[in-house]
Design brief:
Elements (H helix, E strand, L loop, with lengths): L2 H65 L10 H21 L2
Helix pairs in contact: 1-2
């Protein structure tokens, strides 16, 4: 084998290794981005769930105000407020467990 042929073979091997390495890195980068996207989507589901829990909390609070003859966003008696607050906290906790 002459030097010219050896040089061409070496150049082709090096080019192949570079292309293989770039492809491998791109595949790994894509997998990392997909994992990051999956985590962000999970976090968004938790936030959406907790927002829905908060909306329910506000409705429950105002309903309790109305049922006790008070205006919306009133100051409820401690025993009623405690129950509504505990229900809200349970809803927040369920969101985290559901999308863990």
């Amino acid at each position: 084998m002459d030097k010219k042929t050896a040089f061409i073979i070496l150049a082709v091997v090096i080019a192949g290794l570079i292309i293989w390495n770039v492809a491998k890195n791109k595949a790994q980068e894509k997998a990392e981005w997909q994992e990051e996207l999956k985590e962000l989507q999970r976090e968004q589901k938790v936030i959406d769930c907790q927002n829905a829990g908060y909306e329910d909390y506000l409705v429950n609070w105002d309903s309790a105000c109305d049922a006790n003859g008070f205006v919306s966003s009133c100051s409820l008696p401690m025993n009623i407020a405690k129950t509504i607050n505990e229900t809200y906290q349970d809803a927040l906790d369920r969101c985290i467990v559901m999308y863990k």
